[in-house]
Every structure is written in structure tokens, then in C-alpha cells.
Task: structure prediction
Amino acid sequence: MKGNNVVSKKLIAALGVLSSLFLTACTGGGAGNAPASGAGGTYNIYASYPVTGALATTAKTVITGLEAAVEDINTSGGFGGRQAKLTIVDDQLDPAKAVTLLQQQIDKAKPDLVLAGVTSNIALALLPLTTRNEILTMTLGQSSKISDPANFPFAFSPTVPNVQDAKAVTTQLLSQGIKKVGMLTANDANGTDTATAYAAAFKAAGIEVVADSYAAADIDMTAPLERLSADDPDGLVMQAFGPAAGYILTGITKLGLGIPVVAGISLSAGNNLGTISSPADWKNLTISAYPINTAKRDESGRLFKSLMAHLKSSGAKLTNGMNQVADGFDMLQIARRGVDQAGAVDAASVSKALENPRPLDGTAPYVRWGTQTFSPESHFLGVSAKDAYVFVKPGPYVDGVIQSIG
Result:
């Protein structure tokens, strides 16, 4: 992995000064936590997120998940015996600013882990810097350029790649009998990558494609929608993250387009439809969703319960999808597992461990999917389209779950 959102009481105080969030607790004797080299002390996590601006709500939700993970990890052995310290900076969705702020941090003290933004643009700006300085890096960006072990050996995206999103959307289009599709995607790094993946998958399945794009700052989507409509497609596929999703949906309603609309994962992963549009805009819409955002989610695991307990104790209100909180939570759990397996905290050792994970012994330490692994060839999660997504009718989020209407 996208308004009101999840804001913890601790976070409200922190955002004004971009402060460090240092959650400490007694170190427990978590089973299977092998002490890392130089155990003891602090494991420093630097998070570059847009805590102000258009995607502030997404950032705050992810940060709540990070806070919950820090609390859980610090009470169960830490990162190989080190207590986690989380420092959050506001990159304001500005790649140049993100680079400057991280360089300033490195000049003072190099972090053990960098969380490189909620968008591919920020991630791709930071990866050369974290690679040169040999810093383990995780990002929610999904551009295929991020998963490049040869050039970015320490960078991982614990997300499902766009090619899997494309496979799932293609299957959905075929199930609806759509033979010619209009495709509307953003012209940013992730949108361009998604458009490439979608077009290839659609054409391979025999679906004719007409394509158009929009800029993230656009608020009137009627022009690209009119151009697509002029080609008389059987259906429309949209990719949108953040406010743009609402502008596209209201534009479809304004133009009176009566064709089926299928939304890729970006829409449900990053938006509460109840806050950016109305049921009048959802009549012909089907959306891709992560299982954790639906009634099909598994609530039985210890870590799911730990995450929910944190939300309750912090006073946080979950108004977007559960996936955003889980993104932050699972990212740190994945990094922690790499540190434990490596018995060290340096980027090279942890990266090698993440590429070659040992089989899980017992309950999986994650909440989104039971298995979340990388490989030497791919630094995206190896989750199939079948397991990664479900298609549902749209509706608002209530306690992180889509309440489908119609």
C-alpha cells in the first residue's frame, strides 16, 4: 500500500513538533528471539511520512500501526534485545524534502531502519541514499522499480506487486463479460507502473484497452473520462489513491456513464468511500479489497488481538481500512523477524535473512496474511492474486471493515 482517520492521542501531541515517539517497556523473554550482535540498547527506526497534506490521513493510520508494533515488540524481546525507538518526520509528499531530512538524520546518527514513505515517488527518491549508506529500508510504495535487488539490495516493499493486482482485475473483468475497457490511472510512479501491468494483463486476456491518465492534483476528472467514453468501452477500470478517487467517482456520476466500473486495489486500500463520495456514485462499481478489510478477515491470531487492544487503549478511531494500520504493524514485525533470524542488525545480514526466511514455527507473526516472505529475486511479498484480493460491492468503512451497499 491510500477524511478523517486514525489518530492516536500520542500522535496528536507528536505531530506538532515532529518528535520522536519512544515507546519503552520491560524487555520480555519472547520465544525464538535470538540476541542480535551487540544486543541491548536501541533499535532506531526513522519514518518519512506525509503527516500534513493530502495523504496525512493515510500516514497517521500507518503510524498508529507502527506504534502498536513498537509496543508489542518492545514487550516481547525487542529487535534482538534492542528496544525500538520510532522517529517520525513530515516529508509533506515532497521527494526533495524527504531526501534532505533523511540526510540530516544520517549526518547525526544513521538509523537501523528507514520507512520510506507511503508512495513510490518518495521511496524512489530515498532509495539511492539508503543504499549508499547501507540502511535497511521498507516502503509501502508498489512501483516495480522498488523491487530491484541488484541496485537496491537493502530495500523491501511488504506489499503485493502491481502485476498481481493486474491479474486479479483481469479475472474480474472477464467474469463480468467486459471485452473492451477504458483505463484511467494516475501519472505518478505507481500509477504509471499500474497502467503498464494492467494493459499487459488485459491484452494477454484478449481485452481491448483504451487508456488515459490524470495528475494527482487534478480535481476535475471529466476531461479524461469523456475521452475514454468517446471510445465506447464496455467497462471502466480506475486506479486512484487519495482524494483523486472521489473526483473520479463523482465525475462518472456527473457524466452519467452507465457502464460497469472496476476499481483496482488502490481505491479501497487508501480511501473510505463514505468520506470521499456518496452511494449515488457507487451504482455500477465493484472494488478490489484486501481480505483484512472485509468480513472474511481472520481475527483469531494473537497479534491481531494485540493490534486491536492497542487501538482501544490509545483511544484511536479506525475510520479507514484495517489494512493501513496492519501495514505499519506488519512492516515492523517483518523487520523484527529478519533481525532475529540474522542475529544481527546490519542491513546486509538482515536483508539476506529476509530473502531466505526460515519456515515459521507455530503462529505466523503477522495480521494481513499468514505468510509474508521475500526472495533473492523479488523484494515484494510473494502473495498470489487469489490470496491477496477479494472483489466486493462498495460501501463505507466501519471499524476498518467495508460495509457493502447493494
User: Anything to note?
Assistant: Residues 9-161+299-384 form a domain with the Rossmann fold fold (CATH 3.40.50.2300).
